């Protein structure tokens, strides 16, 4: 049913909590797992890069996630992309022909004010496949 699962990750607590759900889904369906980290492009008026999203930090994040799944007997592919997170997640889902996107939710989209700022809400609206949100 879910041949390919895309799991966008960042350093949030919500992403770490969603990892358990990803493990369960991937093991149950024997899915291919693709881990994605999206580094947001800096805007022209913000010349200094955020040290929390340096290439080294992103590489370490992806490697740690791959190791976490490897300990569960799951082989994971890793992708690193640059761009607007919601659009990039959906583009990658389309590119890899994902059958499911699993992601954590920070709760910003639960109110009208936060809905426009929520990457999760944007992914739900733009996704080429079902999206499982882990609260």
TrEMBL record:
InterPro entries: Rossmann-like_a/b/a_fold (IPR014729), Universal_stress_UspA (IPR006015), UspA (IPR006016). Pfam families: Usp. Residues 1-135 form the UspA domain. It comes from the Bacteria. Belongs to the universal stress protein A family. This is Universal stress protein. It comes from Komarekiella delphini-convector SJRDD-AB1.
């Amino acid at each position: 049913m879910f041949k390919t699962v895309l799991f966008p990750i960042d350093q949030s607590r919500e992403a770490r909590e969603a990892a358990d759900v990803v493990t369960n889904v991937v093991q149950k369906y024997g899915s291919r797992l693709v881990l994605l980290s999206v580094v947001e492009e800096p805007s022209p008026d913000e010349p200094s890069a955020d040290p929390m999203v340096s290439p080294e930090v992103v590489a370490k994040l992806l490697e740690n996630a791959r190791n976490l799944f490897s300990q569960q007997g799951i082989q994971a592919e890793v992708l690193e992309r640059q761009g607007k997170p919601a659009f990039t997640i959906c583009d990658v889902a389309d590119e890899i022909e994902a059958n499911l996107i699993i992601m954590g939710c920070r709760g910003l989209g639960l109110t009208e004010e936060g809905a426009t700022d929520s990457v999760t809400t944007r992914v739900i609206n733009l996704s080429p496949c079902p999206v499982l949100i882990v609260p």
